Amino acid sequence: MACTACIQTLTLALISLSFLNITMGDPRTSLVAQWCNHTSAANGAILADNFVPAMDNLSSHVNANGYGTSITGVNPNAVCALAQCYGDLNSIDCKLCFSEIRSQLPKCYPDTGGILFLDGCFGRYENYTFFNEIFSPNDTTICSFSNNNSNPNIFGQTVKEAVGNVSLQARNKRGFAVGSASNSNSTVYVLAQCWENLNSSLCSSCLDAAALAILSCSPAREGRALYAGCFLRYSTKLFWNVYQTSSSSSGTSKTIWIVVGLLLGAILLILLGLFIAKRRGLWGRKKQASLKDLYGLEMAAAISQSNLNFKYEDLRKATNNFKLSNKLGQGSYGTVYKGVLSDGKEVAVKQLFLNTRQWIEQFFNEVDLVNKVRHKNLVKLLGCSLDGPESLLVYEYYKNRSLDLFIFDESHDKLLDWQQRFDIIQGVAEGLSYLHDESDTRIIHRDIKASNILLDDKLKPKITDFGLARSFAQDQTHLTTGIAGTLGYLAPEYIVHGHLTEKADVYSFGVLVLEIVTGKRCSSPVGSHAEHSLLAKVWNQYKANTLDNVIDNRIYNKNVRDEIIQVILIGLQCTQADSHSRPTMSRVVELLRSNRSSDEVLVLLDPPFLDVSPIEALEGESSRLISADMSEICFDFLPAESLIISIEYGRCILMNLFFVRESKI
């Protein structure tokens, strides 16, 4: 009975509100305009390295305040960024709108600047400080094609009145205002927004110019003025979110707030009814309806009934609103945070850079697929969240975090001895062998590197980040949609031709082996010659029969010297330029298990690098890996649909924007 009364009350409330023409919450993520400055960065690698942290900083500010600025790096390769949600968006809608900015703004890269106007928010980045700019060469006015022809002169006066009043209010109300003006035939609604960093004088100057420009749209039913420092829009339709805006001069909004006040009691009853419904098991059906609105009935049912489904709100609370102090790291696809669920279980929550709503079925199917992949050396993917402004992945949590924090630690606080390093190498090999040959679905990881190897309490390795790897059928091994992974670990045939097989993972594993044995990163940010790469150094020492020189002196011991040398040779064999010369991962496991007693001599056919500059010189799968400056390869030869989002120690971190959504499981 209580639930029935609740529903009746809710129905009456909705009927009352329907008479007021209220616009319910809308993040307004429709694209209005985007400009890129078409000026290439002086050093694209450094600009890329600054871009992602700038976006992360913006995200933190916008999520907290609806506005933010960020400066990362120094000129001429700095990234100065600004984002602003319009004042009528609530926090959830603001996050949704900014999520779209974060998806769209990088399309300007590698240009040094870009401007993006959505209907609910604004974003911009440059390589200089622009925060006090109110005008730019891109400033423009956009008018609708539909005109109000009933009485153009009267309509024009109404537009002028509404625009003038709201612009005046905005400069006196922290840069934001909404309002309306009416005549006998129509009502004109206006929204004005200055960026929060502008003072009153700059805001006034921007809005004055925008108001003058937008009046030229009349008698069009709608107009927008897009300026570097402000946004102004009018329409004959109520487009702003009434529930989020402050009281305006219009009689409509006053009436709305009166009705809202009268309905407070009814809302309390509604909340009580929802609580009762939740206790009776009806809440799940309400959540499913929400998912249905997002993804359709069939997909919503699959998500709701799956044990892989996590609520966004639960994960937000678990990570303390994705607090910076809970950040564990940042990978090719997103930022990872530590979270504690309501039952006390610790998890790792990956906040993906791109929302998955447009390719939800493929994404959810892959999450389901990877969840079923179980091995002692693989991190378990627990599930995902798809009901919030950003898509989230939930993994097992390991407090020791990733391998790179140990092998590249110069403080010796996390020193791994040789036995521990060998166990890690063998565990990673066994995990990859399982993905390639033993799991029900053949999976190629594509991004094996030290930061994607987690360590449990006993320092046993767990491969992570294969949740976004592509699973392949037997006849699907050639990619035409771009490269994903980390340069320095990428096989030459994959860099040049996009040809992907398990042997690409073998190559990456070989590089990882050399890093573990030497304690050095695979590539250096200096120079463009072969002698600067780890592969080159190890190969040169191999030719000189002086491999002892490359062993990390923190683990060097004559008692294990031969064993270490044998492992180095396995690593070099895995990094052969010709993929056919590389062993399979199952063969690598055999070699590692027998290395203590084996006298087998591994024959290396050719070096895994060659110091030549033009990448065009590489022909076929037997080509040799260029050990040139990786940033040159990144920016000059990557397919257009790949996006470089970071540079780490001279290696490009790539994300293919279209790969997952265009591919089929």
TrEMBL record:
Span of domain Gnk2-homologous: 29-130, 137-239
Membrane topology note: Single-pass membrane protein
GO terms of molecular function: ATP binding; protein serine/threonine kinase activity
Catalytic reaction(s) noted: L-seryl-[protein] + ATP = O-phospho-L-seryl-[protein] + ADP + H(+); L-threonyl-[protein] + ATP = O-phospho-L-threonyl-[protein] + ADP + H(+)
InterPro entries (UniProt xref): CR_Ser/Thr_kinase, GNK2, GNK2_sf, Kinase-like_dom_sf, Prot_kinase_dom, Protein_kinase_ATP_BS, Ser/Thr_kinase_AS
Sorted UniProt keywords: ATP-binding, Glycoprotein, Kinase, Membrane, Nucleotide-binding, Phosphoprotein, Receptor, Repeat, Serine/threonine-protein kinase, Signal, Transferase, Transmembrane, Transmembrane helix
Binding site for ATP: 350
A cellular component term, taken from the record's GO annotations: membrane
Annotated compartments: Membrane
Signal sequence region: 1-25
Membrane-spanning residues: 256-277
Ranges where the Protein kinase domain occurs: 322-610
Pfam families the record matches: Pkinase (PF00069), Stress-antifung (PF01657)
SMART domains hit by this protein: S_TKc (SM00220)
Major subcellular site: membrane
Keyword Phosphoprotein: yes
PANTHER family with a match to the protein in the record: CYSTEINE-RICH RECEPTOR-LIKE PROTEIN KINASE 3
Protein name: Cysteine-rich receptor-like protein kinase 2
